[in-house]
Every structure is written in structure tokens, then in C-alpha cells.
């Protein structure tokens, strides 16, 4: 079987698996589950891999093709479309009155070997709200916009969130143009492949006062909803990461000739630190996390006592004060461990992104929408990963809904959310957006 046939087979497998979950009782209020399934499948076909995953990286022809397809759907549903200089795609539904618009959407780019729901589900959910209104003959009180952001994942240039940053004017294009991709190609050359320019990104800034609120649907990328058998949950905040680079410095020595009571082993100190970092988050909040994910040992020899160890600590929480408290405790503990082992330690903060809290009113409206549409008590949970909503949330009220993820898998060909869960999320989104419009 050739590669083309294998990919066709994967697309058909994806479609059949989605349609196996078709529950036509969920087709009401204009929401059409079959349309959702067909649109998810059509996007999955663009960038489908032999393994059944998605490779639709930013600034690729595949990302551009996916955007053009969504733009076509927008136009078929009567939305007024526009693509800005950053490649962000907008579809506008006129309201009964003019004014600030409620905006919803996500992205279509993927990681190198990703799945078919991270990003596309948020785009299709936002568009389905507009499609459902059209089918039901409903016109919103104020304008509603569907957006497809450029380059959320950052797989091309090890960055990300470029589209949403360009909209709010946060993007430092003078720095971005210095980047090269995984093939060593310059940023400006890659942009030119899809008809974009640095100047276009600079000109993409919009007046945030034109946005009443932004709402994003995303797969959970975790197991909390699955454990509770819930299709959808309400996000309370989006964690911002603090990255620490911690270096323990001891004395390298011969592994055979140095007695155990005369050693200053940097790796032993680092090991004690790593072992206990996991206990600190629960001392601060139930949304705090800390991860040691990278380790470098020097001289890294079998018969040499480690003289220096550098490790990374990724610290996240949805409240700034909680994140700062956790960071302080971990830094203080590093000093405590170093003193106990007779080594020195240095701690450098290499990244610090402020978290974004979802306003209580937005959480309440999302919870009410979940209760009204599904008849279940809303479940609230934090987002440990970054999203475009994190960028918009610094300027306008934001809300987020998570859709259940099978086994919590994400950024992987095994990523999956059932059609049933997706459509139920769309019903909650639709009611949520209507509440925000009415408020």
C-alpha cells in the first residue's frame, strides 16, 4: 500500500470513529453533530500522517490550506471574512446593534506529530455557534466573531502564540525576525512561503476595546473530566510558567580514591532536591505544579564524582501570588540542600510568564451554561498549558471550556475527544456566548 492510500485509509478511520459516536438527540438549537464531524474530518485530512496523526505546522502550506477551508465555511454560513497581516482569519456575524464583539476561536497549526483536536475543535466549535444561529434564524444582539489564530503551537520557530500576540500588539517583531526554523531557514523566508511579511504582523494590532470578551474551547489535555465522566468543564485560570535553572556545584573527584565522608557530590545534592520538589506544590495550592524536566551532569563520567549539576524546574499556577510563593519555597529549599551537602548553588530565572485568571463572572456564566444545557453541576478546573486566551486575557475578559480528552493524551496521534463530548461542549459554548452577549 502506498503512502497516499495509507493516508486515505487513516482519514476514513478517523471519520468512522467519529461517526460511531453520533448521537442525533444532541442535534437541537441549530447545532448539527454531523456537520461538526464532517468539518473535523475535513481538517484532519489536511496534514494527516501515515500514523494517523497531524503534521500541520505553522506557516506551512497545510496550515494555510486549513485556514482557507475554514474561511470558505465561514463565507458559506454568511460570515463577513477577513485575513489580517499576521494570517489570522476572522469571520464576523453582524449583531442587532453595533459595538464590541464577542469573539471565539482557536488555532489550526499543530506540533510536529500531533493530533486532530488540539486547536481545530476550538475553531469548529466557535464556527458551529454561528452556523447554529443561522440555521435557527437567530441574530445576536451584538457582533460575534470567529477567529483562527496563526502559530499558536510555535513548532516552527520554538516560540508560539504569534497570532494572538500580534492582535494585542505584544509581538516584538525585531526579535522574531532573528529566528530560524528547524531547517535553518530564516523567519522572513518562511513567512514569504505563505504570503506573509514582518510588516503585516506589525500592522495586525487591533483596538482591544472592539472586543467585549473572548471565549475559547480546547481539549483538556488531562484526565480530570474523564475521571468524573464529564464531557466539558469550566476553566478557572491559565497557568503561566516560571522556569528556573538550578546549578549545584561541588568538587569532582576520583570515584575510587575519594572516601565517602570526604565528598562534595553535586549529583547527590541535586538528587535530594529533585526528589522533594514534588512535595512543594501541594503546600501552596491545589493548582500548583512543579516539574524537573532537564538534567545535565558534569563531568558525567562513570568513575568521576559529579562536580556540577544543572537542572530545570518548571513552576506553574493560575494565581501570580501562588506561583511566586511556590518559586520562593523551591529556591529556599535549593539553598537548604546545598548547605546540607557542603556544595554551592545558584538559581537563575530564565522565564516568567504571568498567569491569567478567568474573571468570576465569566466562570459563573460558563457554569450556568453547563447546568442549563446539560443538566449537570459545573466542574471547575485550571489550565496548566498556555493558550491564545492567555494572551487576550491580559486585555479583555476571557472564558475557557475544556472538552474531555481520552486518557488525557495530547500532542500525540492518539489524541481523541468523542463526537458526543465535542457536541455537548458546543451546546455549552453557544449558551455561554449568548449569556456574555446578553450581559
UniProtKB/TrEMBL annotation:
**Keywords of this entry:** Hydrolase, Manganese, Metal-binding
Peptidase M20 dimerisation domain location is 239-338
UniProt GO MF annotations: allantoate deiminase activity
What domain of life? Bacteria
Q: Which cofactor does it need?
A: Mn(2+)
Q: Which Pfam families match?
A: M20_dimer (PF07687), Peptidase_M20 (PF01546)
Protein family (similarity comment): Belongs to the peptidase M20 family.
Describe the subunit structure: Homodimer.
Question: What NCBIfam families has UniProt attached to this entry?
Answer: hydantase, PRK09290.1-5
Protein's name according to its UniProt entry: Allantoate deiminase
